[in-house]
């Protein structure tokens, strides 16, 4: 049997990539959890998730007794609960862990981003203030810092920078609101700012296949297309890739700065760090960067990907000035699939993480280095899970770089 702590935490986003990892850790520690889950498929999903992740059935049974699930939606009044349920929870819950967010980068989804990330967070703050005053944990992002090219500190709220996308802007607005609202309502708050989260460093497990994975997946698609092409088994996709019929590698220029930093953090590090920080009293009123203190450069990451994936048929260069250049077929394919992430390949942001380092000093929670071994674990998992989906990509004739973006 797990022990039972007399602390009830309401979690949002518990079915998501990070929220589910934190939920599992809190359950194992003995917290009583209340989950706010959107109605579609929710409850059985969570049960299945826990069963699938906790092979020990006895442990599953004992911890699932500490779990109550509520269908709701953070964007609607009373979080979509019956008024009676809402009222009961405002007194029953001791702390709120607000992890739910819209996490897409597409500008056409700006309204949804604003609604979920800003208005949804306001509703959660209102909940934290109602009934019993509750401690409020908010998962932000290190990229509220936007396009700055400097060191970003934890203690200060970032001055509104230029943003790479609406996701960053809405997370910035939400974070600012958390600090101002919490201060004026007397809510004890803690903010966690992870950088770019990838799979578990020991197992590779992930349920998100964006950022790093998309770059690797498209690289793999093109490489495999080329290989099969040389063997003569062509299909629609591979016929387009015949630029290397003479055995010359396909040249692909990727927009970016070779010396920019890609701040990747494995899921287990982020979840362990946040779980540890949220249990400490002295983390109240502070912001924590959950980042990689030694992030790889774009060039280093490119080299590691090429080496791990044994890429032979592609000559991948990083090009700081792509405007006005005509794209080849393979380049167009590559860029179209990865375009939402390019601004991050120019980022020179450095994140100071003194608060996190100090608060975790006496623990063995450290961000692992993003090296060959770790990336291989991540990529092996992704490849063995078909990058989370089955996908066929088709490309058309060459177009200018600007038209793809
Ligand atoms: N992934 C990263 O690299 C990264 C990096 C830095 C910060 N973060 C932050 O970490 C948090 C978790 O991100 P993630 O990667 O785990 O995202 P995710 O996998 O997309 O999960 C987001 C969760 O939010 C829930 N949600 C969205 N809209 C909701 C609504 N209206 N009402 C209730 N729940 C709603 C989703 O519910 P459904 O299951 O119903 O869809 C999902 O469970 C976010 O705040 C994100 O900004 C993530």
Task: Characterise this structure.
- This protein is an alpha/beta fold and 405 residues long.
- Helix content is 40%, strand content 14%.
- It has two domains: 221 residues, Rossmann fold; 138 residues, no CATH class.
- The strands form four sheets. It has a seven-stranded parallel β-sheet, sandwiched between helices. A two-stranded parallel sheet has the order 6-13. Strands 8-10 form a two-stranded parallel ribbon.
- Helix 1 crosses helix 9.
- The radius of gyration is 23 Å and the shape is globular.
- Bound molecules: NADP nicotinamide-adenine-dinucleotide phosphate.
- NADP nicotinamide-adenine-dinucleotide phosphate (NAP) binds next to helix 1, helix 5 and strand 8.
């Amino acid at each position: 049997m797990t022990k039972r702590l007399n602390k009830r935490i309401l979690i949002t986003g518990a079915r998501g990539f990070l929220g589910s990892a934190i939920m599992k850790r809190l359950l194992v520690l003995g917290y009583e959890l209340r989950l706010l889950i959107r109605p579609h498929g929710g409850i059985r999903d969570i049960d299945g998730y826990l069963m699938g992740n906790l092979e020990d059935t006895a442990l599953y049974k004992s911890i699932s007794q500490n779990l109550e699930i509520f269908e709701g939606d953070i964007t609607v009044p009373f979080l979509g609960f019956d008024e009676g349920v809402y009222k009961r929870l405002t007194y029953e819950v001791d702390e709120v862990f607000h992890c739910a967010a819209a996490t897409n980068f597409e500008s056409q989804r700006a309204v949804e981003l604003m609604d979920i990330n800003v208005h949804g967070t306001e509703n959660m703050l209102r909940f934290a203030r109602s009934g019993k005053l509750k401690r409020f944990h908010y998962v932000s992002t290190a990229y509220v810092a936007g396009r700055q090219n400097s060191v970003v500190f934890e203690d200060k709220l970032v001055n509104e920078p230029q943003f790479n996308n609406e996701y960053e802007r809405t997370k910035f607005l939400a974070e600012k609101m958390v600090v101002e609202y919490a201060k004026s309502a007397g809510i004890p708050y803690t903010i966690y700012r992870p950088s770019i989260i990838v799979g578990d460093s020991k197992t590779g497990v992930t349920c998100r296949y964006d950022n790093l994975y998309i770059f690797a997946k498209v690289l793999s698609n093109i490489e495999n297309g080329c290989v099969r092409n040389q063997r003569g088994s062509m299909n629609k996709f591979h016929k387009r890739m015949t630029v290397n019929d003479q055995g010359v590698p396909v040249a692909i220029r990727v927009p970016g700065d070779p010396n920019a930093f890609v701040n990747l953090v494995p899921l287990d590090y982020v979840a362990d760090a946040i779980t540890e920080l949220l249990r400490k009293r002295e983390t109240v009123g502070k912001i924590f960067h959950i980042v990689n203190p030694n992030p790889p450069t774009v060039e280093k990451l490119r080299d590691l990907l090429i080496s791990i994936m044994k890429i032979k048929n592609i000559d991948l260069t990083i090009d700081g000035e792509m405007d006005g250049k005509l794209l080849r077929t393979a380049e167009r394919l590559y860029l179209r699939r990865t375009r939402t992430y390019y601004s991050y390949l120019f980022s020179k942001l450095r994140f100071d993480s003194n608060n996190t380092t100090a608060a975790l000093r006496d623990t063995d929670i450290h961000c692992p280095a993003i090296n060959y071994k770790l990336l291989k674990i991540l990529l092996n998992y992704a490849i063995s899970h078909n990058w989370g989906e089955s996908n066929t990509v088709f490309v058309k004739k060459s177009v200018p770089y600007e038209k793809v973006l």
